[in-house]
């Protein structure tokens, strides 16, 4: 497989974008509040370096197996990134409200179920069984990521919990990238044919360009300081904590009354 000059440019630019994102996370002290996201970026850098070595020193088949094997690790880390973002949004006081945590877990399960259903309905055109598995796995992860982010947004709006600046910027970048991944995966799993091979290549390039744009976005936004929130008076903090406990107790009594 021969890489074009544009393919080489995208690969190099994406790698330098990963390095710059990591440097900003470390230099600006963002790695401490977002350790999982930092590990995710480090994993992307390692994948790029190892993939480059395998591609130029071994076969394209070895590269494909390596790429998709590391893709599983990438997806697992990404799920932990979403959980980290959820902690920042739904647990601002350090304590999860029981109903919010239960609803969030429900969002995760629902996202996985819908993504699995869509994946089972897909019939990608591939010569080898491993290619079919790879296309379906990529579609499942892209669909689940997009649904999970949308579910988190809906849940936060319902609960009246705002997204802090840096949390929102990380989520916006991941959301944009996930949507483009879904579009590419739909073409690969539902529409791919000889006539659409060129469309798939263009969407794949656009997917990489989107990720590169997200990296630039993260570098700029994570370098900036978040607006300093006004500190709540101690009396108001106590009132909020007491109100939260009262609401949880009322919910417990309501459930017990329904059972009776």
Mass-distribution shape: globular
Percent strand = under 5%
Number of helices: 8
N-C termini distance: 68 Å
Structural Rg = 21 Å
Low-confidence stretches: none
| Average of pLDDT | 78
SSE order, one letter for each helix or strand: HHHHHHHH
Structural class: mainly alpha
The proportion of residues forming helix, as a percent range, comes to: over 70%
Strand segment count: 0
- Major beta sheet summary: none
Produce the secondary structure layout.
Elements lengths: L4 H23 L7 H23 L2 H31 L7 H24 L7 H31 L5 H27 L5 H27 L10 H26 L1
Plain-language structure description:
- The chain has helices at 5-27, 35-57, 60-90, 98-121, 129-159, 165-191, 197-223, 234-259.
- The protein is globular and about 65 Å long.
- Helix 1 packs antiparallel against helix 2, helix 1 runs parallel beside helix 7 and helix 4 (98-121) packs antiparallel against helix 5.
- By secondary structure, the protein is mostly helical.
- The mean pLDDT is 78.
- The longest helix is centred in the N-terminal third of the chain and has 31 residues, at 60-90.
Summary keywords:
260 residues
Summarize the structure.
By secondary structure, the protein is an all-alpha fold.
């Amino acid at each position: 497989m021969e890489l074009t000059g544009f393919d080489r440019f995208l690969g190099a630019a994406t790698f330098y974008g990963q390095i710059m994102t990591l440097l900003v996370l470390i230099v600006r002290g963002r790695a401490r509040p977002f350790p999982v996201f930092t590990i995710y970026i480090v994993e992307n850098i390692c994948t790029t370096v190892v993939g480059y070595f395998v591609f130029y020193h071994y076969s394209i088949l070895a590269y494909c197996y390596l790429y998709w094997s590391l893709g599983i690790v990438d997806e697992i880390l990404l799920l932990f990134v979403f959980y980290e973002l959820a902690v920042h949004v739904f647990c601002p006081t350090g304590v999860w409200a029981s109903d919010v945590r239960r609803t969030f877990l429900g969002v995760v399960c629902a996202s996985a179920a819908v993504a699995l259903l869509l994946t089972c309905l897909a019939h990608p055109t591939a010569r080898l069984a491993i290619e079919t598995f790879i296309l379906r796995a990529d579609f499942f992860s892209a669909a689940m990521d997009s649904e999970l982010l949308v579910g988190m947004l809906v849940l936060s709006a319902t609960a009246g919990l705002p997204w802090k600046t840096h949390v929102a910027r990380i989520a916006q970048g991941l959301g944009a990238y996930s949507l483009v991944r879904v579009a590419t995966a739909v073409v690969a799993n539902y529409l791919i044919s000889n006539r659409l091979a060129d469309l798939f290549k263009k969407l794949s390039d656009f997917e990489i360009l989107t990720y590169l744009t997200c990296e630039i976005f993260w570098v700029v936004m994570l370098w900036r300081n978040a607006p300093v929130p006004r500190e709540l008076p101690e009396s108001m903090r106590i009132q909020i904590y007491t109100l939260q406990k009262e609401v949880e107790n009322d919910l417990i009594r309501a459930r017990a009354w329904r059972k009776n």
